[in-house]
Amino acid sequence: MKSLLNLVGNTPVVHVDCDLPTPQPGFLAKLEAVSVGGMKARAALSMLQGARARGELAPGAPVVESTSGTLGIGLAFAACSLGHPLTLVVDADLEPPMRALLTAYGARLEIVPLPHVTGGWQDARLRRVRAVLDRDPRCYWPDQYNNPDNIRGYTSLADELVKQVPGVDVLVCSVGTGGHSAGIVGALRRRWPGVRLVGVDSVGSTIFGQPARARLMRGLGSSIHPATWPIRSSTRCTGSGRSRPSAPARNWQARPSSLAAGAREVLRLSRPGWRASKPGRGC
After folding, report:
1. Considering the entire predicted model, what is its pTM?
2. What gap in Å lies between CA 200 and CA 223, rounded to an integer?
3. Residues 138, 123: Cα–Cα separation, whole Å
4. Could you tell me whether strands 27-31 and 63-66 are parallel, antiparallel, or unpaired per DSSP bridges?
């Protein structure tokens, strides 16, 4: 029997030839934005279904999680589909369109008004999550930063890629919880053992040892060290801020034939045989 859960995954791969800062012949992109709930719905379903199977999440019990927005969309879809009320702890900087979208998906928002003095917004949100758990012992917290089911949720994406592309040399992932990085590269390496992993971090993120400070790009980087990030098997590539990745995206979006999506919802795949001119440490 088909259900809403069948709408997750099985996304297409297309060839993209938009202009970028450096000349390139085009690349393959997996369009996760066409899947309901986006890429993060894979992890959200994995975490909730795993908790239900282990008896940690009772039928109809409430769920609470901290989010900067992207996981919240996936969790809102997953919780609604599985019959769980959802509370999302967000911060005051969350954009109004994202607030409206999460609310439209049925989530209740708890808004943290101020960042923590030393831990920033992320720490402040996690403190509020713990307060919600104290108020309602029935609540389940997926804890995306330390949940192995977050990683397992992306195995299906990698399995699809193995069928859709002839090969992968390097996987380049934005740094966040590390769930999609670890989940995708682990599954790809079962098919292609030599796949390298490169993590793109944000200025102000502490994952690779930078001093913490305000980050311009929401959802990229972290002020904590999540257990799900495969830091020992990755090469770091720290971004400079918002302008460099945004300019090509805006150029592509302005084209009449473009398909615009969130930064995390288009997975870029270099063609087999491509190599960086100055490759970093291998994995």
Report:
1. 0.79
2. 15
3. 23
4. unpaired
Q: What is the pLDDT along the chain (283 residues), one digit of tens a residue?
A: 568 888 899 999 998 887 766 777 777 888 998 998 999 999 999 999 999 999 999 999 999 999 987 899 999 999 999 999 999 999 898 899 999 999 999 999 999 999 888 777 788 999 999 999 999 999 999 999 899 999 999 999 999 999 999 998 888 877 766 788 888 988 999 999 999 888 777 665 666 666 566 655 555 555 566 655 555 555 555 554 554 555 555 554 555 443 334 444 556 565 444 333 333 333 3
Q: What sign does the dihedral 72-73-79-82 (CA atoms) show?
A: negative
Interatomic CA distance for residues 199 and 230, integer angstroms:
9
What secondary structure does DSSP assign to 68-132, as a single string? SSHHHHHHHHHHHHHT--EEEEEETTS-HHHHHHHHHTTPEEEEE-S-BTTTHHHHHHHHHHHHH
CB distance 37 to 266 below 8 Å: no
**Whole-angstrom Cα distance, residue 167 to residue 102?**
36
User: Which DSSP string do the residues of the chain spell out, in sequence order?
Assistant: ---GGGGSS---EEEE----SS----EEEEEGGGSTT-THHHHHHHHHHHHHHHTSS-TT--EEEE-SSHHHHHHHHHHHHHT--EEEEEETTS-HHHHHHHHHTTPEEEEE-S-BTTTHHHHHHHHHHHHHHHH-TT-B---TTT-HHHHHTTHHHHHHHHHHSS--SEEEEE-SSSHHHHHHHHHHHHH-TT-EEEEEE-TT-TTTTPPP---SSTTSS-SS--TTS-GGG-EEEE---SHHHHHHHHHHHHSTT-----GGGEEEEPPTT---SS-----
